[in-house]
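Lab notebook page, bench 4
Experiment: in silico fold of construct C2
Operator: M.H.
Input chain length: 260 residues
Purpose: comparison with the prior construct
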Amino acid sequence: MIEFDNKRLRISDFHIKCKDNISEYEVFITHTKPSDIIEFIKEQVGNKCPFMVVMDDLIESGLLDIFHHTNNGSLGNYGEKDHKRVLEDIRCHSRAGKFAQEIVVNAYIEFSHVLSNCTFGLIPKAFDPDRERVKNRFIPYEMFYELCGRLSDRDCLIAKLLYFGAPSVESTLQLRQSCINKTYFGIHFKCGDVPFPKHLMRDILSWIDDNGIMIDSYIFNNCKLEKVSRVHLDQALKRASKEINSLPVSAATLIRNLTS
């Protein structure tokens, strides 16, 4: 068993000392302030490393407060659930724009891999749940988000529902506010309930509130308060795909998998 005293042992020294004794290193991690571990990582990658610059911003913003120098907690139980919570918080609460958020997400994932390596795997690596969810989609994740940047807010929300798991195009266009399940961040379709990313459900709820969508009204309607037509959606996607110099994309393409 390791004996700890009031004098701080440099993590870098202990990291070398314990590389062949993971159990001792695990004890050391639970007795070390997370902010000190951040300083150790900076020693390894440099203060100006792009992902560490982003991490400093996240820490100061409160989205990653466990690593703040005022926090005396421990990373002893830091794991996959914590990674997932941080990524959701970035997408739900980050002050960055929707597409800048993806840069922050990528930076956190890169940081988590370095953190995992520096702790000999005691802290697992983070993996983006959004990317994992759509890894078999025909349209790659990065291309999809570039496409969304060329759509209206309404069409972008429809596209995201299709991409992240809506069962069909028509059932998505026919959604009414009464279909929203706020308890588990999901939507009720005729074929059953489908959970969606928390950040997407927050955006849909904001859309409903901002546009005064009534309980029995279509969530996505046109100027005549009729549901958005599939022809319109396909035309909007076709224009957007042309603007990003990709092959033509339609609503059906968004729900298509690589094996489809």
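Observations: The two ends are 56 Å apart (CA to CA). The chain is about 50% helix and 5% strand.
Next step: discuss at group meeting.
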